[in-house]
Structure formats: C-alpha cells, structure tokens
Amino acid sequence: MGCDDIYSINSTTYRFCNSSYSQRWFVVEYYQGRESGAAVFLAVLTAAVMFVLGIILVGLSLLGRLSGRAALNPTVRVFLYASFSLFLPLMSYMFSQAKEEAAKQKMQNLDSLSAGDLPFRAQVILVWMLSVELLRKKLDAILTAMSSSPLRTVHHQQTLWDAIDQIVRIAWIGYLIYSYVHGILEPGFIILWVLTLIKAAQRVAAVELAKRSFAVGKNAHLVVGYVAQMTEEEGIRSEQQTGTMLLRKCWYPVMGEERLKRQAGPEGYRVKLQELDDKKDLVTVGDIWELAEGDHPTLMDLCLAFALFKLLRARFQNFQVEEEVAVKNRDLIFRGLSNNDDAGGQGADDSTNGDDRDGDDDSSSKQLAERAFHVIELELNFVMDYYHSVVPVVLCSPWFLVGNYFFVFFIVVNQAVIALVITGNGALLPVIGCLARDVATLSRRAIVLFKCLGHKVLQTTIDLFSSFNILVSLLLFLTFLVMEAWEFVVYVLSDWLLVSLLCEYARAQVAVLTACILDLRQHTPWVIASKLLQHRFLGMPSVPVPKEVKHAVFASLRAKGGSGEPLSNGVAVLHRRGYQQLLWACDSRSVTEVILVWHIATCLFEMKNSAQAAAGAGRSTEETVGATLSKYCAYLVACAPELLPEDLEGSKHVYKAATRDLHGALRRKGCRSASGGRLERVMGIDGPDPDAAATMGAELGRQLLEECGFGGANVARGWQLLAQLWTELVVYIAPSRNIEGHAEALAQGGEFITLLWALATHTGINR
Fold first, then answer.
1. 17 within some domain
2. Residue 255: DSSP 8-state
3. How many domains does the chain have?
4. Which top-level group of life is the source organism from (predicted)?
5. How is 670-702 classified by DSSP, letter by letter?
6. Hey, CA dihedral for 565, 566, 569, 572, is it positive or negative?
7. What is the pTM of this model?
C-alpha cells in the first residue's frame, strides 16, 4: 500500500469482518465536502481550542500539584470555563452540520456512504464530545479546588443542579450515540459513553459521601465536641507530665472518631468515653507515640500535625475551641516536642548553671524550634489539600483506594463485555476476534498512514488539518490517561494515605503495613521536584527562611505563650534595653506605618555599615535575623497587606505615600545607583508632613547611627536591638482574625506569616 492509494479519490475501501460497513480513509474524506469557508474555519478553530485545552489541563494537573500552588490565573480560569460551557452546543451544531453535508453528498453521488453510516467528521466530533465530558469532571474539580473562595468546604463543592447538569449532558450524548452510531463502531462508543457516565457518578458519589461523613464533612463539629469533653474530663492532670510523656498521653484524635457512638447536644456532639479504650475504633496521638517509641519521629510528627489540622480546620469553619485546648497545645508544642524529658518543663528563658548546660539547652531549643515548625508545615499542607486539592485525598484510606481506582476499572471492563455481548447478539468470542483482527489491520494501516502524513503534511492544507485532528483526538485521550495516572500517583504518595496506613497499623499491627509505611514515607524525588518547581513556576521566587530566624521567632513565641506577657509592636524591647528615646517610632496605631518606619531605618543602618560587614568574617546571627525580618515585613506591606492585622485600604494608603516620598527623594539631583548617594538622599528627606512614614524612617535612621552610637565598633549592639525588635514585631502581627486572607495565602503556596498565625492560633497567643 502506498501513499497514492491512500490519497486517491477512488482509493480502496476496507471492509470490517462480519459487516458491510466501509469507510474511506479520513485524510481525504474529512475535508472533501463542499462546505462553506465559515464551516471549515469553525472546525479548524475548534480543533485548535481543543489542542490548547488538553495542554492546559495536563499542565494544571502536573505543575499545579508539584508547585504547591492552588490558585489559578483569572485569564486561564475564564478560558477554561468558557471553553467547556460553549463546547457541547457548539459540537452539537457541528455534528448536525456534518450529517447534513453527508446527506447532500449522498444525493449528489459524491460519497459512497450507506444509509446507516455516520460521516467520519461526525464520528470525530462525537469522540471529542465524550472525551471532553471525561475531562469536564477534572475541570470541575480544578475550578472547585482553585475557587476564589478558599473556605469552601465539601458542603459547597457540588449541588443538586450540578449533578443534574452533568446527567443531562451525558444523556444527550448517549442519545446521539443510540440514534446515529451503528455497525462495528457501536461497541466502542458505548464503552466510552459508559466510562464517561461512571466517572461522573464516581465524583458525585465521592462528594456526597464526604458531605455526610463524620470523618470529613461533619468532622470539625464532632472534633470540637470531643475535645471539649475530653478537656473537661482531663482537668489539670497533664500539668505533672513533661517532655514526650505529654505526647504519649495525648488523646487528640488522629483517625477513627467517626466510629464512636455519639449524641448531638446543645454544646455539640458528645461521645461515650467508656468506649475509648477500644483500639479498633479511635486512634489517638498517644497511640502513635507509644507504637513508634521514637524510632521514626517523622511519622509521629505527621500524625500530630494531622491531629492539629483537625483543630485548625474547626477555626476555618468558625467553630469555637475551648481556651483549655490552647493551654494543652502550648504544652504539646513548647514542651512535648522536646527530646529532653528532664528539661521539657522549663520555659524558654529559664537560666541554667554551667556553660555546658547552656550549650545543651541552646541546642535543644534549636532542635525544638525546627521540629515545631516542621509539624506546623505538615499541618498547613493538610489544610491546603483539604480546601484546594484536585484529588480526593481527604477520603484517603486503603479501602477507598481499592474502590476508587481498581473497582472502577472492573466496572468498566464488565460494561465493555456487556456491550460486546449485546452488539454481537450473544456471540462474544466471535465479536472479540473480529475486533482483534480489525485492530491489527487498522494498526498496520495507521503506520502507513502516518508515514504518508509525514511526507504530505507540509504540502497541502488538507493534510495538515486532517493530521491535526488526529493529533487532537489522541491528545484528549492521552490527557485523560495522564491525569488519571497522575491522580493515582498523588493519591498513593499523599500524607493522607500514609496517616491512614499508620492508623490501620496501630489498630491491627499488621506486619505488611509496616513495610508499606516505611517505603511511602521516603519519596525523596517527589519532595525534590516539588521544591524545584516552587522556585520555577510561581510568580515570585520563594526564599527559604534562615534557621536563625526560625529559632528567634520560636523563642519569642515560646516566651510569650509561657509567661502570658502581652504582645507589643516593639515597645517592650525598647524599654527592656533602655532606648526610651526611640519609643516615638512605635507610637503609631498603624502597624503598616511602624513596619515602614523601622524598615527604612534598618535599611539605612545596613547600607551605612555594609562596607564594614563586607570586610568582616560574615553576617552575625543578629544581623541575619534583623535584616531578614525587616525585608519580609516590608514584603507583606507591599505584596500581601491582607495578612496584616489592620484595614487593607489603610495599609495600601500608607504604603503608597511612603513609596512616593522615597521615589521623590531618590530622583532629586540625578541620583541613580550609587549607594552612598541614595543613603544621603533618603536620610535627608524632610517632607511637608513630619508624621509621614518616609520622614519618620529617615529620622529614626539618623538616630540609630548618630544618637545611639551604633556606628563603628557598636554595630553589633545595633543589630542586637533590631533583631529583637523585628522578632517581637513579627510575633505581634502573627495573630489575626483574617482567616480568609491566610486561606488565600495557602492557595498561593503559603507564607511564613501564615505558619506563625497557625502556631499562635494553636497556642492561644493574641494581641
């Protein structure tokens, strides 16, 4: 068979076994009709849109998950929504047009189609309609997970009208298949339609199951009642426990609380406490800690993070958590995560005797800070998965894994067999043999076809568009397969499934689960890919938080939580270190203004001493902490003012005024890039408003360098003051009632201030 045979108008037709159906190769047939230019343009435009659509869906599925970013660009969201909304009516119109053109050709004896045949263009359109309905389920999940309202729970992810809309679309396509598809193509279309119907029903069932489940949709209400009841029963017994013993005795639920017998009351759900000893039901943090015995701290931290996630989710859903729970959280985080049981009960600022003991305490405090931040990071990952994940990881369990993927596969195979039996009049084996021979024949001819297309694709527009439609059809199908496979990989490697396996092991202690758990917890390539893509595909590059900053902020949070000392915007530090002459810089009621004033002063201080720092051995810990937190707070003012604890419009107004004054100062007298010139211009700002942030920042910078004597050999003292002040200021802005803003930040990949907010929320630290 050669290219001339394929492209000839009178080319040979190929008959399928046991059928009189014949079909000319579609390279010629697809565009051979006498269509108008508008019809051809519409077909080509649709193919191009479908091609772009497939690429976007694959990109969203892969890069969105790895980058940790759930937010979707508004332009992409509008394109996806419009494409899928207009697709079915547009394809229905093109399907009808293809049939009409075929009928005209038949009457003019330009085609050899029999009365029961469906034109090839209509077949392609029908395949596209089914493929898009398969992908529509993925798009619905993506748009729901990336919704502009990040606090939407499973209760709002699907309504009755959504389900009816899905059923009507699929029923319409089924009607087209039933009415117009006959012959050997009928089993294939029926199988594809059944698969589409099953996948739609699968999503509806998963969401409805989550809505009604006390493990997902109603879990926050149940956990709040359970925690309040257990806190009341426990009293103050935990005060005598120290170190990891707190976690071994911790009754926070990890999984299984939905299995307990419960009763709704005026203060929420109450469970029957006498049944809590049944290990086949509830698995607590203490059960995991007793089971692991310190061999795998990462797994223990993961389960603690999952338990804390349930408490934080209650805050997201506007449930009130008892104050006693914050006291217990302080014990768990500030003392329980310490590896030193003897020192676990000591506060952050307790004094010890001996340099060795001081060094040990400092090392232990740093390890505690790293571990606590790691637990909160894991917790926020659970939060983001719950509100933004495209994959139903919130239903993770070994049984759901079997039902969601493997059982659906068996259903599809079963429906395929039924379709073959029905269309073959009960002769299953002959039909399968016929299909196998046809597939083998088509495969050989397809190879020749693509070889010919490779030679002809650059010669004629008809060949180009015909091959493009082949590519689009394959791309849509491969997009579905890739997204299904990717969802399975994400599901298997998710922390949700890992926690579920740990709880199953805690209940039954099956040896097989141990190997699974230890293998799943080490998916290093996944973590590496995620970190790389975070830097490559997010709009703004991520900057890792230095360990020195984490240690300083955690020590401040620990001190505030343990002593009950009220938070301040830097005033307490200035009083403690004896710099009352600088208190005016913290007098403003606007947090944004205080941040900008101290940021300008810190930048001036850093620029003035940059030469001295360059000649030295390197940055000190205090300089790292002060400079990093100063720049991060300025970043929050400029790029994320919704995370600050004050009015959004007020923050923007102060920031715009400050930047306007600074730009005006730097433009005077042709100042360009010389650091010395910029320093003098900024320090010389003397605007009409002495209370403007830029003017106050310049004045504060002069005081730091001149009146306080922080220049020259006293630079270290200046950085000590700035490090402590910025640490206290960051802790001051961390508590916030703006849950919506932090949820939005999680959708964008997360912010360090959101991590501090979660830590402050758990430990009851408020302004």
1. no
2. E
3. 3
4. Eukaryota
5. G--S-HHHHHHHHHT---S-TTSHHHHHHHHHH
6. negative
7. 0.77
User: Strands, E, within 84-192: which ranges?
Assistant: none
Residues 235 and 303 in one domain: yes
In a domain, 95, yes or no: yes
Rounded (10°) CA dihedral 339, 342, 348, 354 = -110
The verdict on 177 and 270 lying in the same domain is: no
Identify whether residues 46 and 118 lie together within a single domain.
Answer: yes
Whether residue 174 is found in the same domain as residue 299: no
First to last CA, the chain: 82
513 and 609 together in one domain:
no
Same domain, yes or no: 645 and 720: yes
Residue 360 lies in a domain: no
pLDDT tens profile 317-360: 888 877 888 888 888 899 888 765 544 444 444 433 444 445 55
Contacts (Cβ under 8 Å, ≥6 apart) of 193: 130, 170, 173, 174, 177
> Rounded distance, CA 744 to CA 748, Å?
7
Mapped onto helix, strand or coil, the DSSP state of residue 284 is strand
Looking at 235-346, list the stretches that DSSP marks H as alpha helix, in order from N- to C-terminal side: 245-248, 285-292, 297-316, 323-331
Tell me the per-residue pLDDT of 673-712, one tens digit each, with 9 for 90 and over: 555 566 666 665 665 566 788 888 888 988 888 766 665 6
Residue 728's domain spans which residues?
Answer: 547-763
| Dihedral over alpha carbons 354, 359, 362, 363 (to 10 degrees) | -140
In contact, 483 and 57? CB cutoff 8 Å = yes
Which sign does the torsion angle of CA 86, 89, 93, 95 carry?
positive
Q: Give CA–CA dist 46/697, Å, rounded.
A: 58
Q: 286 and 169, same structural domain?
A: no
Nearest Cα to Cα of residue 654 among 692, 613, 696, 711? 692
Both 500 and 619 in a single domain? Answer: no
75 residue type, one letter = T
